[in-house]
C-alpha cells in the first residue's frame, strides 16, 4: 500500500509553543519512551548501516527494517496529527498553515520517510546531536538557542563530508527544492535569530 509522508519544522512564538505543548508533548514522549524505539536506536548506534544502495544485497535486512521502523513517524504523534485522537486538532491547520517560507521547512514524499534518509546520511553520532526524537520535537525559544550549536555540529559538513552525506540521502527532489541536509539548519538559525520556538513533526498525510 502506498503512502505520503511529510516532515516539517516550523517556527512559533513562545506562546504558540505553549499552546501546542498540551496537544503534542505527551505523544512525543510516548513515542520516545517505547521500548522498541530505544532498542532500535541502540542497535543502530552500535552497528550503523552500510551504503543504502547495498542494503538488500547483504544480510542486514533485519537491521534495515528495524532502522526504518525507528525513523518512521511515531504512532502516538502520527495519531495526533491526523485527528484520530482529537478531531479538533489538525497538524495541517493548527501547526503548518500560515507559516512563512523562511520560518518553515517541509518535505513531502511518496513511499519514503524524510527522517529515515536524513538520519542514515548523518549516521547515529551526528543524528544523536539533534534535539527531540527522530525528527519530532517541541522547543521553546531558549531551547532553540541553546541547541543551535549542536544542530550546527550535526549539519555542518566539509566538502568531502557533504558529498558522502548527499550520496546517502536517497530522497528525490524537484529542481530548487531544499534538501533535508539544508532546510533544518536554515530554519534553526532563523528561529534562534528571531527568538522563536520550533516544532518538528513527522506524519503520514495519506
Instruction: Please count the beta strands (DSSP E, at least 2 residues each).
Output: 4
Strand order of the largest sheet: 2-1-4-3
- In percent, how helical is the residue content? 40-55%
Question: How would a crystallographer describe the biggest sheet?
Answer: 4 strands, antiparallel
Overall geometric form: globular
Number of helices: 9
Structural class: alpha+beta
Question: Which residue ranges are poorly predicted, with pLDDT under 50 across at least 5 consecutive positions?
Answer: none
Which value, in Å, is the CA radius of gyration? 16 Å
- Name the average pLDDT: 95
What is the H/E order?
EHHHHHEHEHHHE
Which percent band covers the strand fraction? 5-15%
Span from first to last CA? 10 Å
Notes on the structure:
The chain has 206 residues and is of the alpha+beta class. Helices cover 52% and strands 13% of the residues. It has nine helices and four strands; from the N terminus they run E-H-H-H-H-H-E-H-E-H-H-H-E. Strands 2-1-4-3 form a four-stranded antiparallel β-sheet, with helices on both faces. Helix 6 (114-127) crosses helix 8 (159-168) and helix 7 runs antiparallel to helix 9 (183-194). The longest helix is centred in the first third of the chain and has 20 residues, at 14-33. The protein is globular, with a radius of gyration of 16 Å. The termini are close together.
